[in-house]
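seq/struct pair 1
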Amino acid sequence: MRTKGLVHIYHGDGKGKTTAAFGLALRALGNGWRVGILQFLKGSPTGEVTALEEIKNVTVRRNSKDFGFFSNMSLRDRQEMTGMQNHNLQLLIEEIKEGKYDMVILDELCAAYNQKSVERNLVKELLELTTGRIELIITGRNPHDDLLSYADYVTQMQQERHPFERGLTARQGIEY
């Protein structure tokens, strides 16, 4: 069993997947680790990204624009977003090869992988590159078996109740 460079997957329909991953990043940063974060499918401003960008030893990459929900995107937007995500993933792979990080977070990779809005061969390259070397955290709904096969930790966040069910929208400082 590996003790260094384990793979975590936080998944499910409940709130808290990104929050848990970013909490782990804060713990690692507090212990002097270098952290790389790549967000898939996200481009709008969020409080956690704004805060993390102020901390040394952390790099956050994400889409340079907000495309909205995948199901509402045009084919052109899907292609543009896929290009951005593959570019960001390739940059991350190069930085990992250079030894830049001790921990890497791939936020919403599960959805991007399932929607094929990221090249699966690049994801596999990253998984092979990090396994046993770098702590890797993956978030999102419905993790593919390809991703689960690498996991040491698998935590499911299950929704039991959410204010959205009562018509409340996302709140700044809580959901973003």
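seq/struct pair 2
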Amino acid sequence: MTKDSTKTANPTDVVADYNGYDYKKIFWEDADRKYEDMADRLAIRKLLPAHMDKFVDIAGGYGRLADEYIPRAKSATLFDYSKTELKQAQDLYGDKLHTKAGDIYDLPFSDDSFDALMMVRATHHFKDMQKVSDQLYRVLKPGGIAVIEVANKKTLPKMFRYWLKKSDINPFSRDIAHLKDLNSDGFYNYHPKYIEEVFKKSGFTIEKVLSVSNFRSAKLKKLFGTKNLVRLEKGAQSLLAPIRFAPSIYYKLKK
């Protein structure tokens, strides 16, 4: 997915190296994440431009969402750190999708290369979102659109864990949350106000916000079923956007 510094990074700086890891099978196919997948797709369909010339999916893994943007783009590129994921994407989509490996903090694209881009389920790997945002802004053409999903720090479950003293991470603080208990590297979550300041500092204008995966819960899936949760999700994405409720917050940004 990414390195945790610039070109001079060494292998120990990699936050999430998915080389040799079957992300497609282990994380998505074997783990009952159909609801999360559909929630992402609902948001993308609302936010991505209907027609694009040059498009890039940043940190797009094996191209899980490629069938959402390939029909809209004259030329689509998938960028990721993992060559394993990129090989899977090539096997799935062939010449319909260009692939490129590299470092998120030093994107291997010229300035003003794309008129639209997307980055979904990746920000939790990034320690320095300002650098990432600046890179995304750089490779986007003036007037271009970026659709970016952000791992939200300020969710209701995290609030309750904090209030009940089960977590010392304050969801109301704008400080970056580094969740080290999840694995050896941990993940990063961001407060909406913090990340919106990051985008604005890069130069982006925020055009639209959606609250996504609002019902991400194993208990809710068991109780209501995926189809019913997806129906609820359709209306909730816009309705709950003002309070930035969900674990995933989607931003439509314009350069």
